[in-house]
TrEMBL record:
Catalytic activity line of the entry: apo-[ACP] + CoA = holo-[ACP] + adenosine 3',5'-bisphosphate + H(+)
GO molecular function, one term: holo-[acyl-carrier-protein] synthase activity
Necessary cofactors: Mg(2+)
GO cellular component annotations of the record: cytoplasm
The species this protein was found in: Tepidimonas alkaliphilus
Pfam families, per database record: ACPS (PF01648)
InterPro entries: 4-PPantetheinyl_Trfase_dom, 4-PPantetheinyl_Trfase_dom_sf, ACPS, Ppantetheine-prot_Trfase_dom
Cellular compartment(s): Cytoplasm
Binding-site list for Mg(2+): 8, 62
GO terms (BP aspect): fatty acid biosynthetic process
Record-given protein name: Holo-[acyl-carrier-protein] synthase
Class of enzymatic activity (EC top level): transferase
Domain 4'-phosphopantetheinyl transferase: residue ranges: 4-124
SUPFAM superfamilies registered for this protein in UniProt: 4'-phosphopantetheinyl transferase
Length: 140
């Protein structure tokens, strides 16, 4: 059952301007530990890819915060929610700390889709409630 849906469209130029103004501090404020490592790799290869990486993560976290109905208030924080690739490359949501506990208590799972084109980065998040686990069978 769908518990929430969120979408966000981010202007990549805004993120580029914030990175120029505040440098790495801006990325450190928005990105979690695993995301920062990926950003550093992409930034080193191609600065434009680094900017787009931050923009898609910014959009994804905004979309996730809308899907769970909290916005950016506790326990939802920029760094407690990370968008990291699965082995297949598919973006996945990785939660930490109080946000993870809050989310798991509700028995939710999140699905995220990211895209960027031209001056825009787009994220779409669907949060679903996991089905109830069947009661264990008791032997006779």
């Amino acid at each position: 059952m769908i518990a929430g849906v969120g979408a966000d469209l981010c202007d990549v130029r805004r993120i580029a301007a914030a990175l120029r103004r505040h440098g790495e501090r801006f990325a450190q404020r928005i990105l979690g530990e695993r995301e920062l490592a990926l950003w550093c790799q992409r930034q080193a290869r191609c600065p434009e890819r680094g900017v787009r990486f931050v923009a898609t993560r910014f959009a994804a976290k905004e979309a996730f915060s809308k899907a769970i109905g909290l916005g950016l208030r506790a326990p939802m924080t920029w760094r407690a929610c990370q968008i990291v690739p699965a082995a297949s490359g598919q973006p996945t949501v990785l939660l930490d700390g109080a946000l993870r506990a809050w989310f798991e208590q509700r028995r939710w799972r999140a699905h995220v889709s990211l895209s960027d084109e031209g001056d825009h980065a787009l994220a779409f998040v669907v949060v679903e409630t996991l089905p109830e686990e069947p009661a264990p069978c008791t032997p006779r």
